[in-house]
Amino acid sequence: MLRFIHAADIHLDSPLAGLCLRAEHRADDFVKAPRRAFERLIDHALRERVDLFLIAGDLFDGDWRDFSTGLFFVSQMARLHGAGIPVGIIKGNHDAVSVVTRTLNLPPNVHLFGSARPETWEPPGLGVAVHGQSFPNRAVPENIALDYPAPRPGLLNIGLLHTSLDGRPGHAAYAPCALRDLTARGYDYWALGHVHGREVVSQSPWVVYPGNLQGRHANETGAKGFTLVTAEGQTIRSAEAVTADVVRWARVTADLTGCDTFDDACGRIGRGLVTELEAADGRALAVRLTLSGRTAAHRRIAGDLERTRAECAALAERAGDVWIERVVVETAEPGRDGPPSADAFAELLRTVEAIKADPLEMAELRQDLEQALAKVPAPARRLVGLEDLDEARLASVLDGAAATLLHHLLDGSR
Predict the structure, then answer these.
(1) What order do you get walking across the sheet with 2-7 strand by strand?
(2) Phi and psi of 54, rounded to 5°?
(3) In this predicted model, what pLDDT tens digit does every residue of 188-234 receive, in sequence order?
(4) What percent of the chain has pLDDT over 90?
(5) Cys bridge to 254: 3, 43, 126, 269, which one at CB 3.0-4.6 A?
(6) Residue ranges of domains in the chain, CATH in brackets
């Protein structure tokens, strides 16, 4: 019986600069999360006394800012060396040979695959042949899997490959290939990297993405970790997902339909955060919070966004180890399906509805906003959710502006 760890997309010391600015007093948690998750991975390898340790690319997030990144990695590899665990690594698009320019000598248990061509590594005494190739550059448009060596007879053959396979949403097409290209090689297990969501692509043979080790933003939600593989001879018996993340990301939508007051809305938001935290397996929780639904509290929620965000942050503190990354307001007033009823503010509301219904007005609004936002740095646009001005986002901007005006007009009339 042989057991090995298959990890990928660790992104050690990922900068997360914009995120850390928003996190304020929680910034240290996010800066250290990739290292702490990696330590958990090494702890598991030592505790389980695995026979082999494989990393399928993007160990690093890019070139090191200083040598502390490399020193940390060497220290963790030395722990595995002390336990007699061999390590095989390929470089991916983020840590390609041309990208990471600083280097340190690695412990003798570490085999770093070259980038010139695919090669085969047989760690002594395990009955295993690992085939792999590092990325020479950030972009590799070729199907390098076609050149991987033939399987070694009588050994457990593992392919180590950083690839988009035949395409995965949200991931650039690096070293693209078809599943049939992999199955045709005759290997017993393909240890893939690059896609940040865990996916068992095939079980005959096994083709697995373990996902990334630690979620880094709100699009990388849910449990993150690595794969523990058990083999008997040349047969894969299991490929078990093991969680290692330190901070768990989640998207939480609080439907505030029917909430008559802002206090009612806060109660519902708070309960939603507590429920999500309970599902995070004791980890700190980072949340992108969306407020939706038709509620009488809409003007209060959308009309004073600064206070709404502060109230949500306070609810997160009360819920436990929760941090709000962003609050997205998508609420609406009750009974706004048709033209607004006649009241002191009907003209404002009718104007907003007319603009939303007029494609030319919406196009002009988009053009004006794009011109204004052209001077805003991309991280700042992402922070306020204006990176993509589609129809829904434009309508949301208009509704938010109307709600803000109504809120302040109503306050001024009291």
Answers:
(1) 110-112, 87-90, 52-56, 2-7, 225-232, 235-243
(2) -125, 140
(3) 999 999 999 999 999 999 999 999 999 988 899 999 999 999 999 99
(4) 67
(5) 269
(6) 2-243 (3.60.21.10), 246-334 (no CATH), 338-414 (no CATH)
HEC sequence for the chain: CEEEEEECCCCECCCCHHHHHHHHHHHHHHHHHHHHHHHHHHHHHHHHCCCEEEEECCCECCCCCCCHHHHHHHHHHHHHHHCCCCEEEECCCCCCCCCCCCCCCCCCCEEECCCCCCEEECCCCCCEEEEECCCCCCCCCCCHHHHCCCCCCCCEEEEEEECCCCCCCCCCCCCCCCHHHHHCCCCCEEEEECCCCCEEEEECCEEEECCCCCCCCCCCCCCCEEEEEEEECCEEEEEEEEECCCEEEEEEEEECCCCCCHHHHHHHHHHHHHHHHHCCCCCEEEEEEEEEEECCCHHHHHHCHHHHHHHHHHHHHHHCCEEEEEEEEEEECCCCCCCCCCCCCHHHHHHHHHHHHCHHHHHHHHHHHHHHHCCCCHHHHHHCCCCCCCHHHHHHHHHHHHHHHHHHHHHHCC
Task: Name the nearest CA neighbour of 267 among 303, 310, 309, 319.
Answer: 319
Cα dihedral sign, 123-128-129-132: negative
- Alpha carbon of 42 to those of 36, 49, 107, 172, 189: distances in Å? 10, 10, 15, 29, 22
pTM, rounded to two decimals: 0.81
User: What is the pLDDT at residue 413?
Assistant: 44
